[in-house]
Inverse folding.
């Protein structure tokens, strides 16, 4: 189903966002 692919894309995007946020929090000071 299309919704299945949408969920996979959304989950992947969310995981990438969390990883990027973690890297940013480690590398940059909180403003």
């Amino acid at each position: 189903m299309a919704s299945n692919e949408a969920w996979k894309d959304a989950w992947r995007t969310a995981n990438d966002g969390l990883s990027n946020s973690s890297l940013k929090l480690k590398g940059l000071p909180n403003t």
